Amino acid sequence: MISAFRNYNPINIFWLAILLVILRVCYLYNAPANTELVLVESFARSLVPGNNINTTSLPVSVLIAGVIVFIQALLINYVVNLYNLFGKSSFLPALMYVTVSGLFTPFLTLSQPLICNFLVIWMIYKLLSFYKNQDIKSNAYDLGMIVGLGSIFYLPFIYFFLVIWVALIIFRPFDWRDWAASIMGYVTVFFFLAVYDYLTDHIHDFYKIWLPLGTAFPGSIKILNYYNYLLLIPVIIILILCFFRLRSNFFKSYVLVRKSFQLFFFTFIIAGLAFYVKADFRLNHFLLCAIPVAIFFAYYFLYATSRWFYETLYFLLFAGIIYFQFNTF
Questions:
Q1: Which of 9, 26, 226, 291 sits most deeply, having the most CB atoms within 10 A of its CB?
Q2: Domain region containing 48
Q3: CA 87, CA 66: separation in Å to the nearest integer?
């Protein structure tokens, strides 16, 4: 399977769709009939009439989420190949994103983090352009607006502002105007939100938007079912193998490639640690980590040499995902 996706063959789009269906249809066997649906944060629900906490048919939610994941997978594949991050075009980034986004059952339904992944892809596309562009102030401003927009959908996305600053440190010499432009872009979004709140007589609640940012970092995380987290074993193994592969090729790679993987690593860390902002923390938050993880996975599987080993490793991950969808323990 991996060997087929190593090639940049359009027929892989068809196989990608098949694998996407296989990874999601099994969940419907033991799934509840309905699921909760929230698309924007509470402070912005008045901007979307009728959007409160509702329930929706789970098959419909899984179907919409599957279509979104498929589109996102192709977009990620396009960005990785456009910037030639692997030195060879393939469909592995798309395959790995489809796989990682089906890792846990909360990932399979429509959610705020899943929608925000469109913005993460857009950010990565613009951040990678920092390397060659001489004047990036307009891009920095756009990125600030993207983070502001993402914060309206899902408040923990605000921490992706740190990703912009990390990219500025990695890709660019210091220029205070680039940093200021990103701040102005973010402020622009909330300026218009403040104007809306003023016109609707809700300006007194405007400051409450950022109160969750003061939440103390939890000392422990409650895990309801430890068995499902056995899937993290092959994930951790693949990540470790990827880092060893990156280490061996690091100084042989182009400067853009080295800097890009540094950016993906910090994106993964920042996205993962932002979970504490939500009082009603849910596992689907870690969908924000799926894009950098998928890129790391794709890099390993593209350069792995022992076919029997990497094919077996991916099969175990794929089979494990399906197995835990059928078993609720």
A1: 291
A2: 2-326
A3: 29
Tens of pLDDT, residues 99-144: 999 888 888 888 889 999 999 999 999 999 888 778 888 899 999 9
- How many of the other CB atoms lie within 10 Å of CB of 296? 23
CA distance 2 to 185: 41
| Residue whose token pair is 């390397």 | 131
Instruction: Tell me the C-alpha distance between 221 and 219, whole Å.
Output: 7
Paired residues of 36 in beta bridges: 55
Alpha-carbon gap, residue 43 to 154, rounded angstroms: 11
Handedness of CA 119, 75, 291, 33 (dihedral sign): positive
How far is 143 from 160, CA to CA, in rounded Å? 10
Residue 50 φ/ψ region, left for φ over 0, alpha for ψ in the -120 to 50 degree band, beta for the rest: left
Whole-angstrom Cα distance, residue 205 to residue 207?
6
Number of domains the chain is built from: 1
Q: Specify the 3-state DSSP secondary structure of 223.
A: coil
Res. 328: pLDDT tops 60? no
- Please, what is the Cα angle at 270 between 264 and 274, to 5 degrees? 145
Q: C-alpha 42: how far from its chain's center?
A: 22
pTM of the model: 0.90
| C-beta separation of 26 from 41 below 8 A | no
Can you tell me which residue has the tokens 């640690």?
273
SS3 state at 150: helix
Residue showing tokens 């939440």: 215
Phi, psi of 57 (to 5 degrees): -60, 130
Tens digit of each residue's pLDDT (9 = 90 or more) over 233-283: 889 999 999 988 888 877 666 777 888 999 999 999 999 888 877 656 678
